[in-house]
Amino acid sequence: MGNCNVMDKKEEFQEAMQSIRNYEILDILGKGGFGKVFKVKRKKNNQLYAMKIMSKAKIIQKKSITAVINEKNLLSQLHHPFIVNMHSAFQDRENLYLVLDLLSGGDLRYHIYKNKRFSEEEAQFFAACIIISLEYLHQQGIIHRDLKPENLVLDEQGFLRLTDMGIARVWRPENASDTSGTPGYMAPEVMCKQNHGIAADFFALGVIIYECMLGRRPYVGKTRQEIREQILSKQVQIKRSQLPVAWTIEAGDFVNKLIQRKPEKRLGTINPSDVKNHPWFNSFDWDKLNQKKYDPPYYPKKFNGVEGTQDDTIEDKNENNFILLRNNTLCEQFNEYCYNQEACIKK
To answer: Which candidate in 92, 101, 107, 146 is catalytic?
Structure first.
C-alpha cells in the first residue's frame, strides 16, 4: 500500500511540473518556423489538445525569444470562446511546449485555397467571428497585429477562432518601432513605421473579407516593398460592377471602409462599435453568435493536418543547435516559459 502512495505522489508531482511525458503524441497537424504542431492526448484524462513544440535553438537563431515569451504571457491573461486558448506551457533543455485548444477544421488559408471564394453569407459569418475575437482583445488593450487567414482556425462546428499572439502587443502611444506583420495584411501605418492602434487590425479584417469575396488581396506583390509601393500609389476600392453575383452593396461598402489607407478614415477608428453596427450587419444576431447558438453557414470537412511521414518526430538533431543551447545567458531568457491553467484555477 505504501508503494502505491509513493507512486500517486510521484504522478501528482509530474502532473504539477508539466512534462512531455504527460502526453501521448497522436498526429502531426502542421509545421512552423520554430518547430511542429501535434495532436496530443493528455494521459491523465484522455483530453485532446494541440501542442506546439518549438526548438529553442531555432528561436534563438531567429532572434524571436521575446515573441514566444510575449505570446505565452498574453495567452496566460486571455480566455475566450473565439480565440485559441492556452492550457499549459512548459519546457525542457531543447524545446518549448505550448498546449492549446485542439481545433479540427483547418485554418482559413487552407479553405481559401480550396474554395477560392465564398458566398456572402459565409464571408459575413467569418467577419462576425473575427470581430468578436478582436473586440475581446481590444477591450484588454491588445492589438493582434498579425491578423491573416493562417491565424484563423475553424473548429469542428464551423466557428472561426483567432490564434498566434506572437507579435500581438499591449497598445502604447509610441509604438512606431513595432513594425512586424505580414505584407498584404499589414496596415499602411504599420508598414510606414508610424504609431498605430486597433485600426491596424480592422484594415487586416477588410483585406480578409476582400479576399473571401474576390479571391485575391487588394494589394499584392512579391516583396514587402512592392506591396508598400502599391498601397502608397492608389486607394483600392470595390466598385459595384466588381461585386460578385448576389452580393449586396453593403458588403462592398463594409470592405471599402475597412481598407482605407488613412486610419483616420477607416471604419472603427473613431468608435470600434461602428464595425459591428455597419449596415451589413443590420439583421445579424450578435447575441446568438456570442453564445455559439448560431448555425455556421460553412461547415469544414475534417482537416487532417499536413501529410505525415515516419520522420515526423519532435527531435531536430543539429550540432549547431547544441552549441547554441550551451549558452546559459541565452537559455536563461526562457526561464519564465511555464504556465499551468489547472494550478491557476485551483488558486
So the answer is: 146
CA 13 to chain centre: 32
Q: Other CB atoms closer than 10 Å to residue 1's CB: what's the count?
A: 5
Active site annotation includes 8 = no
Domain ranges of the chain: 11-103+305-346, 108-290
Contacts for 314 with CB less than 8 Å, ≥ 6 apart: 20, 25, 35, 36, 38, 53, 95
Cα separation, 225 vs 85, in Å, equals 34
Annotated binding-site residue numbers for ATP: 52
**pTM above the 0.85 mark?**
yes
What span, in angstroms and rounded, lies between the C-alpha atoms of 31 and 317?
16
pLDDT by residue (tens digit) across 17-30? 678 999 999 999 88
Please tell me the predicted confidence (pLDDT) of residue 33: 80
Q: Which residues have a Cβ under 8 Å from the Cβ of 250 and sit 6 or more positions away?
A: 278, 279, 280, 282
Mark the binding-site residues, compressed into ranges: 52
Is CATH 3.30.200.20 the right assignment for the domain spanning 11-103+305-346? yes
At 36, which amino acid appears? K
Instruction: Collect the ranges in the chain with pLDDT lower than 50.
Output: 1-15, 307-311, 344-347
pLDDT in tens, 159-199: 999 999 989 999 998 998 887 789 999 999 998 899 999 99
Q: How far is CA 245 from the centre of its chain?
A: 31
- DSSP codes joined into one string, 10-74: HHHHHHHH--GGGEEEEEEEEE-SSEEEEEEEETTT--EEEEEEEEHHHHHHTT-HHHHHHHHHH
Q: Which CATH number fits domain 108-290: 1.10.150.120, 1.10.1370.40, 3.40.50.410, 1.10.510.10?
A: 1.10.510.10
The one-letter amino acid at 217? R
